[in-house]
Amino acid sequence: MQGLVLQLTRIGFLLLLWLFVFAVIRTLRADIASAGGLRIPRYSGGSEKRRRSGGVRGAARHLVVTHGALANTRISLGQQPVLLGRADDSTLVLTDDYASERHARLSRRGDDWYVEDLGSTNGTYLDRSKVTTAVKVPLNTPIRIGKTVIELRP
């Protein structure tokens, strides 16, 4: 009788182990599939837009979310800095697990906008470069915070 209980316990433990492995694989597949849908556009200096519209001129007037949970969100820019993060008092509250409470700040200096990382865990990226100091943001250049991508638009 003891041998039967021991054998059933082993089979039960093995079954639980396989259920755990399948749950992990399913979670990884879901994460990979959702990350696969995120395609960060490569910045080409705006030359294509310049050819079509005769040039990209003027200062940024809008902040547009191009990818992520808040895609197609548009914020009008003024003189005030724009705080980005998960905190409730952020200008753009990101519902992104990879964003910090106070992740990054966009601030205006004359007609130019600068992005700076505020000590976030996962970093802020301008085009494909990690932001370590305040960096000038050209128009239509992707800024990536976790799975969220934003751009400054005229």
UniProtKB/TrEMBL annotation:
FHA domain ranges (all copies): 82-131
Keywords: Phosphoprotein
SMART domains: FHA (SM00240)
Gene3D superfamilies documented for this protein: 2.60.200.20
Lineage top rank: taxon: Bacteria
Name of the protein in question: FHA domain-containing protein
